[in-house]
Specification:
Elements lengths: L4 H13 L1 E3 H8 L3 H15 L5 E5 L2 E5 L2 H12 L8 H13 L6 H8 L3 H14 L6 E4 L3 E4 L3 H16 L3 H10 L7 H6 L2 H12 L2 H4 L4 H19 L22 H9 L7 H16 L9 H19 L8 H13 L12 H10 L1 H14 L7 H18 L5 E6 L4 H14 L3 E7 L1 H7 L7 E4 L11 E2 L6 H15 L1
Parallel strand pairs: 6-7, 6-8, 8-9
Antiparallel strand pairs: 1-3, 2-3, 4-5
């Protein structure tokens, strides 16, 4: 069976989330509704062979069928013989070939990627358009494509495109780290990523993750990929030119702390010369700071802000919040929001959801926004930053109400903010819920006693696991809330 790159991407997204708005696909692929309908007819030719079907309901595309059949479909997509690379995969491979001198002429690269030379030229210009500061090239008759970017920029570009490609297989990577083995079948990933090296690096990181990198699974994969790419570049003799990094990286003074010491030990073998060691260590150290919370500008002040927020809300609303974890949760959230610069840190709130939260907790919203503006005089206090904090208070208010019946576990790879949002929405819409705990995919099999929970819901497809669960999107929909209600009703029966 032949499957186009766009149809394969649509299927991959539906396998990941179970359902999604048709308008999301129309906007993402820049196609018409008529084209999407034609694509769905083609897609269902593949899905029917696996006893699956994609239906449209209330403007949502929903992949229906047994989980075991979905896993079979996913395996087929990843091992498809007539492999057609998506644009992200093609760009990743194109950069990999160019940066490792595997191919330089348009004809060589078009043969490797099974597209026309014009398409290669189009993809190169697309990369330049996306990253004009980092990517520059020229085409010469004798040499072919000559990349003008420096080594710092090359690593950044490899990291950005390879991460986009690998994040779709996030759960497979997380499981691989757990069992020190991997079953990734994606041709592009296998070409661009040294899987065995990545697993070995993760083993080293595992010992410090909880203390230095209190991050989501997505950010954890970012860290590992960047270190893996950097070490492979070092091993192949590609060195950083100087300590004057691109705008994405800011120079900081060497700090002889646990993070710095860890990086020194990690690079002890591949980095040989003293001068190279200093450059490489500082480079990776600066990158790592974006994901650590140990270098916060003033953690103590943020702890005081969290306490002040709680006291102000309690005083003005004339109530006492009994949550034992509210201050700690607020402090951690404030640190991650205002002192840790997370690249491409996207929230999942749309305008409608922000309006709903502002209406549901209008008094708390007003208080929180006033307090944040008073504290961060120069910081832009946007609505999405405020509503995340408001949701922490919403959860605390719900804990004041009477005990309910069911205990849920939310498996989430998108970060604490998304987990809190899902928790608050579930408790508000399903009053029978007693508690909602959250856990990352990484920690799911290490620290959690699943027997404590009546139901597991996950924002990522976990594949075949020894327990039942419901897949939801990070922005949980009414249809998914109804599905959870129905499952809980079945438990009661």
């Amino acid at each position: 069976m032949y499957i186009s790159a766009r149809n394969r991407e649509i299927l991959e997204l539906l396998l990941l989330y179970g359902e999604a708005s048709k308008f999301d696909f129309i906007n993402y692929f820049q196609i018409s509704e008529r084209t999407l309908r034609r694509d769905l007819n083609e897609i269902n030719e593949y899905t029917r062979k696996f006893s699956l079907i994609v239906i449209t309901k209330d403007d949502y595309l929903i992949l229906q069928g047994e989980d075991s059949n979905k896993n079979k479909l996913n395996s087929w997509i990843n091992s498809y013989d007539g492999y057609v690379f998506s644009s992200t995969e093609r760009k990743s491979l194109l950069l990999y070939y160019l940066f490792y001198d595997i191919g330089r002429t348009l004809s060589d690269l078009s043969f490797k990627l099974n597209v026309s030379p014009d398409k290669i030229n189009q993809e190169l210009n697309s990369i330049k358009s996306e990253f004009p500061e980092e990517f520059s090239f020229q085409i010469e008759k004798a040499k072919g494509i000559v990349v003008l970017s420096n080594e710092n920029q090359k690593r950044f570009l490899l990291y950005r495109y390879i991460y986009q490609m690998c994040n779709k297989s996030l759960s497979q990577f997380i499981f691989a780290f757990r069992v020190s083995d991997i079953s990734i079948n994606n041709v592009a990933i296998l070409e661009c990523v040294n899987i065995s090296s990545l697993i070995e690096i993760e083993k080293r990181f595992r010992s410090i993750r909880s203390t230095l990198f209190n991050v989501s699974d997505e950010d954890y994969l970012k860290i590992l990929l960047y270190f893996s790419i950097s070490i492979e570049r070092i091993d192949n003799g590609y060195k950083l030119e100087a300590l004057n990094f691109s705008n994405f990286f800011e120079n900081t003074l060497n700090r002889k702390n646990s993070l710095y010491t860890f990086i020194v030990s990690l690079l002890d073998e591949p980095v040989k010369s003293t001068s190279s060691s200093v450059i490489e260590i500082n480079h990776l150290y600066n990158f790592s700071l974006d994901f650590t919370n140990q270098e916060s500008i003033d953690t103590l002040n943020l702890e005081n802000l969290a306490e002040s927020l709680i006291q102000t809300v309690e005083r003005r609303l004339k109530l006492t919040l009994k949550s034992r974890t509210l201050k700690e949760d607020l402090t951690n959230h404030l640190i991650s929001t205002f002192t840790v610069s997370r690249e491409n840190n996207q929230t999942f709130f749309d305008k409608k959801m922000i309006t709903q939260i502002k209406n549901d907790y209008s008094n708390i919203y007003t208080i929180v926004k006033e307090e944040l503006r008073n504290f961060f005089l120069k910081e832009s206090i946007t609505d999405d930053k405020v509503v995340y904090i408001v949701l922490h208070f919403g959860v605390a208010l719900l804990e004041l109400s009477e005990k309910r019946g069911y205990d849920l576990l939310v498996v989430c790879s998108s970060g604490m903010g998304t987990s809190k949002m899902i928790s608050a929405i579930l408790k508000r819409n399903i009053p029978e819920i007693n508690s909602v705990d959250t856990v990352s995919v990484y920690n799911l099999f290490h620290e959690v006693d699943l027997t404590k929970y009546d139901l597991v819901v996950s924002t990522i497809n976990l594949g075949e696991v020894p327990f039942s669960y419901i897949v939801i999107s990070p922005v949980i929909t009414e249809i998914q809330i109804k599905e959870i209600k129905n499952r809980l009703d079945q438990l009661e029966e």
